[in-house]
Amino acid sequence: METETEKEKEKEKETAEKVLFQVEELPKTIVRRLVKNKLSQLSADSEISVLRDSLQAFSESARIFIHYLSATANDICKESKRQIISAEDVFKALEEIEFTEFIAPLRASLEEFRQKNSGRKSASSKAKDTNKKAKKNEQSAQNGDGSKQQEDHNNDDENNSD
Amino acid sequence: MRQPGAYSKLLCGGRTGPHSLPLARIKKIMKKSGDDVKMISGEAPIVFAKACELFIEELTKSAWEMAVQGKRRTLNKEDVASAVIHTDVFDFLVNLVSGSDNPRVEEM
User: Fold this and answer.
1) CA distance B105 to B2
2) Against a cut of 0.80, is the pTM above it?
3) Cystine design at A70: which of A151, B19, B33, B71 (Cβ 3.0–4.6 Å)?
């Protein structure tokens, strides 16, 4: 009887771990694709095969990398007394954990994404966005001179007093 | 052949977009990295996704070098472990490769 309970417990533990891992792991297909693509780059003439165990190791490593990078970015964010982890925090974190060579390509990638995103937004709500953009441009143009911003504040005050 | 399905956008864009790894899952992992990680900007997971890709590529390259040194054409777990041990920037992974039974072994 004891062996049965033991077996049951083990099974439960396994399922629990599996569930945890399913939630926390990165998709195997993507990890596999990344590894295989890189390998075909590195060894164009001969095909390198990858054992399943090692794919698991890649996946785990990537997960821990995210943990480590987030914890570092979180610390940086807290130091500047902000609540939200921004992309800049992540870049500083990369410097701190000595992955500086990643920063340039990541910035480029982020810019690409930002541009794509702003393209999508303007397609759905054109008028609203052109107004916002115009305001932004004005503000950034008068960045050194904060008078425009003060004007806006004054307007708000007037509204509130009414 | 299997249909691309959920990851179809990866395949139709030629070069994958900056967020090919699922952002929701990355956010989950980020939130588990610390109790006080509450708010993450919309852009952070995207940078993470790409950083993860680059990281996996770096690790693959180092592991491949280990396999080449051993004159093998198959990457195994030991290659990944050797890559971690021999590369300074992968120090944070040392605990992972030394054995999952002792996740907090402190080396003096």
Assistant:
1) 42
2) no
3) B33
Q: Taking CB atoms and an 8 Å limit, are A109 and B18 in contact across chains? A: yes
Radius of gyration of chain B (CA): 17
The bridge status of strand A49-50 relative to strand A84-85 is unpaired
At what angle are helices A147-161 and A126-141 packed, to 10 degrees?
120
The segments of chain A whose pLDDT lies below 70 read 1-3, 13-24, 121-162
> Does the ipTM surpass 0.85?
no
| CA-based nearest distance A28→chain B, Å | 10
Which residue, among B67, B64, B2, B29, has the nearest Cα to A74 in the 3D structure? B29
Distance CA A37, CA A33 (A): 6
Compute the distance between CA of residue B90 and CA of residue B83 in angstroms, rounded to an integer: 8
Under a CB-based contact definition with an 8 Å cutoff, are residues B20 and A76 in contact?
Answer: no
How many Cβ atoms from other residues are within 10 Å of residue B39's Cβ?
12
Six token digits for residue B34? 């610390």
A158 Cβ partners below 8 Å, 6+ apart? none
